[in-house]
Specification:
By secondary structure, this protein is of the alpha+beta class. It is 12% helix and 25% strand. It has one domain. It has 1 helix and 7 strands. The radius of gyration is 13 Å and the shape is globular.
């Protein structure tokens, strides 16, 4: 797998949901996207750590574009977007489960 340069993002108020016991993480995060022939792996870490967590919904299908920077920017914008609040007024988290294109099992 090839990796795009790590990208800094600020999680929305509800945070970013991981696919691990870490659950939702928030604040200043680093996004790491790894591109493979069969899947795109997306992970996040707190800005000052080296503990990486897969994002819920990762891995994704390989992107339609060959521009890895463009795809990384699209994923970063998606994860940093504030999805608003639920019916009870609680901040919603973001993840990759609703990103265009269903996840592909690896």
């Amino acid at each position: 797998m090839s990796k795009a340069s790590p990208t800094s993002i600020t999680a929305p108020p509800g945070g970013v949901m991981t696919a691990t016991d870490a659950g939702v993480i928030s604040g200043e995060l680093i996004l790491r996207v790894s591109f493979g022939a069969d899947a795109t792996k997306v992970e996040v870490a707190y800005a000052e750590t080296d503990d990486w967590y897969p994002v819920e919904g990762s891995p994704l299908r390989p992107p339609e574009t060959t521009d890895r920077n463009e795809e990384t920017a699209r994923i970063a914008a998606h994860l940093a977007h504030d999805p608003g609040v639920d019916a009870h007024g609680n901040a919603r988290h973001t993840d990759l489960t609703d990103l265009a294109g269903p996840p592909q099992p690896v």
